[in-house]
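Comment thread on ticket #2218

A.B. wrote:
> Attaching the input chain for the structure job we discussed in standup.
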Amino acid sequence: MSKKNRNLPTQSNSTNNQQNRLYLEARKEFFAGPLPHPDILKKYNEVFPSAAERIVAQAEAQTAHRIKIEGKVVQSEIVKSYLGLIFAFIIGVIGVGGGIYLAALGNLAFGGIMSGASIVTLAGSFIYGTKSRKDERMQKRNKI
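C.D. wrote:
> Ran it. Output below, let me know if you need it in another format.
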């Protein structure tokens, strides 16, 4: 902050009705990011030579680490998705196949219930999962 006096009379008993005016000028600066403001980095270098270089290297290493972790998270989500599909298929085949087997043995009611329940459960899981992913995407969009 700096104060500037403008149009102040040179004598305290001014005859030409001038008013004392005080002008105040304020400046606010905002800086955001993984690194300190360049002026602050410069001051670090004044206190400790090559400090700015070390701070920038540390920020670069942290960024690379985050990118690596995000890659692993994405890869694990892909694996989980494929495993979910595989296990859903296995459960569906066992459920429907078991129902057909029971129906072939003569227990039509229980075989139909078992096959129907397997299909309804898998369809419900698919619908619930799709809705959950859609809601999650909407929440992420709203945060941006």
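A.B. wrote:
> Thanks. Noting for the ticket: DSSP finds three helices and two strands in the chain.
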